Amino acid sequence: MTSDMKKLFLIVVAVAALWACSGEKAPFNYRGLAMNMPLTQFMDSLQARGFAVDTAASDSGKTWVLKSEGVPYHVLLAFKGEKLLMAQENYTMSTNDSTRDAWQELRDNLEKELGTWPNMPKHGDDHKVATFETDGGFITLTLENTYSPNLNVRYTVKDEEK
Predict the structure, then answer these.
(1) pLDDT tens, residue by residue, 97-120
(2) What secondary structure, in 3-state letters, does 93-126 show?
């Protein structure tokens, strides 16, 4: 093999490697934590961020509820075995205006972060639903101010068996 052929071969290999690496997608995540990691590792990561398991509200076979003093929501995790299926933030707020403002801020931030518009099947003043679809799952913001202020954000992993 001549020197020019070796250089051409190395260039082709480098381009192929670069193309292969650029095709990798980041896993679906909840606040920077990959939702494809084992449940125990995911729980450890949340506990390192200051969350603690609320055993009274949890069902250790299917769901865990985690709370932290520094955030206005608690996190509900649904799982099957070691596989995380869903993470949901349930916000605790005292007025309908505060949930409306928080919903709009969360929606705007997700729109910027994901670079896409949500599907919005409901868009009233006190009942709104916005669903963002990503490669690995869905993020759904739900505002329901019917009887009391209610705001939640659900991160659902797409079913891989389809």
Answers:
(1) 999 999 999 999 999 999 999 999
(2) CCCHHHHHHHHHHHHHHHHHHHCCCCEEEEECCC
CA nearest 155: which of 145, 144, 140?
A: 140
| Average pLDDT score over residue span 19-40 | 79
Structure tokens at 51: 């969350």
- Closest by CA to 28, choosing from 114, 115, 119, is 114
CA–CA gap between residue 16 and residue 23 (Å, rounded): 11
Q: How far apart are CA 76 and CA 54, in angstroms?
A: 10
Task: Express each pLDDT in 114-137 by its tens digit.
Answer: 999 999 988 888 899 999 999 999
- Burial class of residue 96 (count of CB atoms within 10 Å of its CB; 0-12, 13-18, 19+): middle
Structure tokens at 75: 């996190």
Model confidence, pTM: 0.81
d(CA 124, CA 148): 16
Task: Show me where the domains of the chain are located.
Answer: 29-157
Exposed/middle/buried for residue 138 (C-beta within 10 Å: 0-12, 13-18, 19+)? middle
How confident is the model at residue 125, as a pLDDT? 83
